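Entry 14. Structure prediction run on the chain below.
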Amino acid sequence: MTYEQALDFIHSTYKFGTKLGLENITKLLEFMGNPQKGLKVIHVAGTNGKGSTCAFINQMLIEAGFRVGLYTSPFLESFNERIKLNNQPIDNQELASITEFVKERIEELIRQGFSHPTEFEVVTAIGFEFFKRKNVDFVVLEVGLGGRFDATNVVENPEICVITSIGFDHMDILGSTIEKIAFEKAGIIKQNTKVILALQRYEEVKEVISKVCKEQNAQLIEVERNYHVLKSTLEGIVFDCVTPKGIYKNLEIKLLGTHQVENALNCVYVYECLKEKYDIKTEALIKGLLNARWNGRFEVLIDTPLVVLDGAHNVDGMKVLVENCKIYLNDKKIVAVVGILKDKEYEKMISLIKSVAQRVIFTLVPSQKRAFSEKEALEISHKCGVEFVPDFREAIKYALGLCNEDDAVIICGSLYLVGAARGFLKSMLSRL
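Output returned:
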């Protein structure tokens, strides 16, 4: 199997839809010899901040000298980004080899009368097999959707469970109330595990997580809002924080926004848990926070005019983006290019970005089955009082044409748009 054939096979499984439940993935992994067993997993669920939290934890463990597997979704520019070893994406040859191995097990599964796994289940199985073959010390494992019935939740004894900020997203699948959504996220909590609960917008989340922790005899560790930002510029953020176990001075991160300080706090608490059992020095935490990168999250890609990429893909994410605009871009004219998938609260999201942007250009999210049709998007743009340029590349070029060198372009609304825009802008820059 070639790399191209591997990707074709993986993407062909999209037709099997999204089926939440562990029966399929459990059976597939059994046929593969259960590669997930024996892995030391830090399991991360939540609505917002999962990826950044994973990036901080991953980098800290690398700085401590460990071999670290990182599993995240979606990818920005290359599929291989989803499965990494010490920040290096799985190479094409290895992806092809493991996909072929998994495909053969799926064929046997089908012959025995079981259902075909979904795309996410297939990718998760590939990830587990890769991490097993690479003999990693830790896996930082990001939940795909929800938690309780997410394919990653086949992990039986995680080292630590982290639950990041919970908000309203995927309500058609996870439920329409914050309590229901929190319950689904809490599904990753296992018997006798340590659970780190990030700072939350909604008090009800704490009640739900606390109840599940008691039922599972899990130790709940709540992140405390005890930090002080010393400096916050487009070059980075310096902050102090205090936890029940320590005082940390002059921590620095390159990821921008107060919410990234709060994601970094999740990593501080993970560090405190892990150092009780493993040889991890404070220096690894400091370097991990400083060197962590997570593209597409208030990422400054171009300086003149300023071009910022932000995968604010739901209402809470858009609120954070708006706050960051007020902090970092309050002296600039902002032109926003926005692409949103149809299962999101697009009217609220557009209204939020309109509050800080002088011009808003609505565009289509490329290559996504959940994207609006051109006709639907045109109707939405009229309804919301924004401009519409169907092709995201033309929308970006139009936005740049509206800007002087002191202005800013923000590209936001979907990680799929941000990833495609990132590739397009980098190719534009390479031709200059």
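The chain has two domains: 3-291, 299-430.
Filed with the rest of this week's runs.
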